[in-house]
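Query structure, 202 tokens:
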């Protein structure tokens, strides 16, 4: 997978996995890594799927309707890429914190839904529920921060609350932050996520 890796100054910190939204690329979320933790490694990845020329992490059939088969395949592909990257760049495989926006947040949530040990935790900006009606692995010890917009036309508030509930039922520790906005990523939600992250016991 096309990516950028930047080695941090503190090897005890989590490696930040940066996952862009539809039409973005591996450069988009690098500024967020500096806001969240400027001492940590970051691994910023470009989605392998193109939709009308726009990079994504998995296919969709329509707005809000995921191609479930492709989602499962791409989630496995990303999980295996993380295995390889951790060896190549010598970072701890069990100490990865995903930071995803929109489509990137959805693939990060899908990692949590499908692989117990894929992530240590995640910051999910405007995510949806990646799959319905499946049993999640035991996510005890995982910390997840969700940011959502009360007027988000793509990801409804009901969906954000449902994702929180599903992750909590799998024993993850989840916090949900609301913005009175739409689907855009705001500076205030990034600051809120940074504050949440800094209060975690890394």
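Result returned for the query:
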């Amino acid at each position: 997978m096309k990516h950028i890796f930047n080695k941090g100054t503190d090897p005890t910190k989590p490696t930040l996995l940066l996952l862009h939204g539809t039409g973005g690329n591996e450069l988009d979320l690098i500024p967020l890594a500096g806001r969240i933790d400027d001492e940590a490694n970051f691994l910023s990845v470009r989605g392998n799927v193109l939709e009308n020329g726009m990079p994504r992490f998995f296919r969709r059939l329509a707005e809000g309707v995921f191609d479930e088969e492709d989602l499962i395949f791409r989630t496995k592909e990303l999980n295996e890429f993380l295995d390889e990257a951790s060896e190549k760049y010598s970072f701890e495989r069990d100490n990865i914190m995903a930071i995803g926006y929109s489509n990137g947040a959805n693939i990060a949530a899908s990692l949590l839904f499908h692989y117990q040990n894929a992530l240590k935790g995640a910051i999910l900006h405007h995510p949806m529920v990646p799959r319905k009606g499946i049993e999640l692995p035991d996510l005890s010890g995982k910390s997840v921060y969700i940011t959502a917009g009360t007027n988000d036309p793509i990801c409804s508030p009901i969906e954000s609350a449902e994702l929180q509930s599903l992750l909590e039922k799998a024993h993850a520790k989840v916090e949900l932050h609301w913005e009175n906005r739409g689907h855009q990523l705001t500076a205030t939600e990034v600051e809120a996520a940074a504050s949440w992250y800094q209060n975690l016991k890394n």
